[in-house]
Amino acid sequence: MPESTLASLAAHRLVPVVVIDDASAADALGGALAAGGLPVAEVTFRTAAAPEAIRRLADRGDILVGAGTVLTPAQVDAAVDAGATYVVSPGTSRAVVERAAERGVLALPGAITATEIQAALELGVTTVKFFPAGTSGGPKAIAGLSAAFVDVSFVPTGGVSLDNLGDYLALPSVAAVGGSWMVPRAAVAAGEVAHLTTLISQASARAAELRP
Ligand code: 3PG
């Protein structure tokens, strides 16, 4: 199950990172993600609306829904109970990774240094979030780390945009990239479906162009 979730994320190559203030906005967001051809969402636990938003998106049945900014085992439980199939964290927490394994979902913990990657490997993790990518050396840092960690793949997030997407996706060790530029918080809150659909379609078209 975690393996197939990772394969699906890697097939889409993009993970929209969502901050949602009111769970009812998830309905319009889900419509825009489906219409834009990118049925993937990482709903961050930065707002109290996250579990209910995950539930609404998961209930549609056509979106690969995960939770982001997951810092505690209790948040793993809340996310999985709501229908999340993957949990993403900014750093690497043994407690979070272990709870995700117990719940049978994919964990994507954050790691940006060689030491952090080794810590993730010791927990059985071979795909890490590389966050914040833009200020942590970007594609060059990932390429350097990949030379040593040949079996590790990365999901860079933080400072990724339509303009630099190609620099990340060109790296064979990059499984997918995440970002909020496709789903701006204000547009999600305002239910701007047409605007969101345009941003999401642009991103997914660009990722498709860059497919090796
Ligand atoms: C994340 O949690 O992955 C980031 O906040 C997304 O970063 P971005 O807003 O720079 O895309």
TrEMBL record:
<dbReference type="GO" id="GO:0008675">
    <property type="term" value="F:2-dehydro-3-deoxy-phosphogluconate aldolase activity"/>
</dbReference>
<comment type="subunit">
    <text>Homotrimer.</text>
</comment>
<keyword id="KW-0456">Lyase</keyword>
<keyword id="KW-0704">Schiff base</keyword>
<comment type="similarity">
    <text>Belongs to the KHG/KDPG aldolase family.</text>
</comment>
<dbReference type="Pfam" id="PF01081">
    <property type="entry name" value="Aldolase"/>
</dbReference>
<dbReference type="InterPro" id="IPR031338">
    <property type="entry name" value="KDPG/KHG_AS_2"/>
</dbReference>
<dbReference type="InterPro" id="IPR013785">
    <property type="entry name" value="Aldolase_TIM"/>
</dbReference>
<dbReference type="InterPro" id="IPR031337">
    <property type="entry name" value="KDPG/KHG_AS_1"/>
</dbReference>
<keyword id="KW-0119">Carbohydrate metabolism</keyword>
<protein>
    <recommendedName>
        <fullName>2-dehydro-3-deoxy-phosphogluconate aldolase</fullName>
        <ecNumber>4.1.2.14</ecNumber>
    </recommendedName>
</protein>
<comment type="pathway">
    <text>Carbohydrate acid metabolism; 2-dehydro-3-deoxy-D-gluconate degradation; D-glyceraldehyde 3-phosphate and pyruvate from 2-dehydro-3-deoxy-D-gluconate: step 2/2.</text>
</comment>
<dbReference type="InterPro" id="IPR000887">
    <property type="entry name" value="Aldlse_KDPG_KHG"/>
</dbReference>
